[in-house]
Amino acid sequence: MVSNVSGRLSRDTVVVTLRDRLRDLPDFVRAVLLFGSVARNEADERSDIDLLVLHEGLRISNIVERRRVLYKLVMDRIGDIYDAVTLLDMELKDFIKPRTITPLLLNIYQDAIVIIDRIGHLEQFLSHVRRRICEVGLVRVKDGKAYYWILPKPMQRIQIL
């Protein structure tokens, strides 16, 4: 792990390192996002690095095998300095136009730092989604180290995208 004097992971150092080390991932990796405690600058010495890999054209339907392949690609590039990495993956189209937005996906939209963007407009997309989260009245509440979302009205269906 890379940390500063207090033992906390340094967000800026992690972002610079990830951008440098992950830039040569295969073309089917369309984007990599950092989320979670490191992205929120809340990491401590026990924190892991949470990454979402957005892919397009990766023809591995088995989720376990797909994650294994993506995890190896990432860890081959950063495993010598970061040993605690959690990797999630999604088809790019499912991130841009999800059928359902889960609380985890809301957190990713809210906190994500773009590490790799081969589509060229993820920052703008995330800014738009963050504005929509505010406009529809969703409120995120911190409870210890966890977060949850409050709807403007209980059981109300909302449209973010």
Explain what this protein looks like in three dimensions.
The chain is α+β, with helices and mostly antiparallel strands. Helices cover 35% and strands 22% of the residues. It contains five helices and six strands. It has helices spanning 11-22, 63-78, 92-96, 103-111, 122-135; strands spanning 29-35, 49-55, 85-91, 113-117, 139-143, 146-150. It has a four-stranded mixed sheet, sandwiched between helices. Strands 5-6 form a two-stranded antiparallel sheet. Helix 2 (63-78) links the parallel strand 2 (49-55) and strand 3. It is globular and about 45 Å long. The N and C termini lie far apart (36 Å).
Task: Give the SSE layout.
Elements: H1 11-22, E1 29-35, E2 49-55, H2 63-78, E3 85-91, H3 92-96, H4 103-111, E4 113-117, H5 122-135, E5 139-143, E6 146-150
Parallel strand pairs: 2-3
Antiparallel strand pairs: 1-2, 1-4, 5-6
For this entry, give a set of tags.
disordered N terminus, 5 helices, globular, two-stranded antiparallel ribbon, four-stranded mixed beta sheet, alpha+beta, 161 residues, Beta Polymerase, domain 2
| Distance linking N and C termini | 36 Å
Major β-sheet profile = 4 strands, mixed
What amount of the residues lies in strands?
15-25%
- For the record, the CATH architecture of the domain at 11-120 stands as 2-Layer Sandwich
- Within the CATH hierarchy, at the fold level, what is the topology of the domain at 11-120? Beta Polymerase, domain 2
Low-pLDDT stretches are 1-6
Average per-residue pLDDT, rounded, comes to 93
> So what's the overall shape?
globular
* Count of helical stretches: 5
Rg, rounded, reads 16 Å
CATH superfamily of the domain at 11-120: Beta Polymerase, domain 2
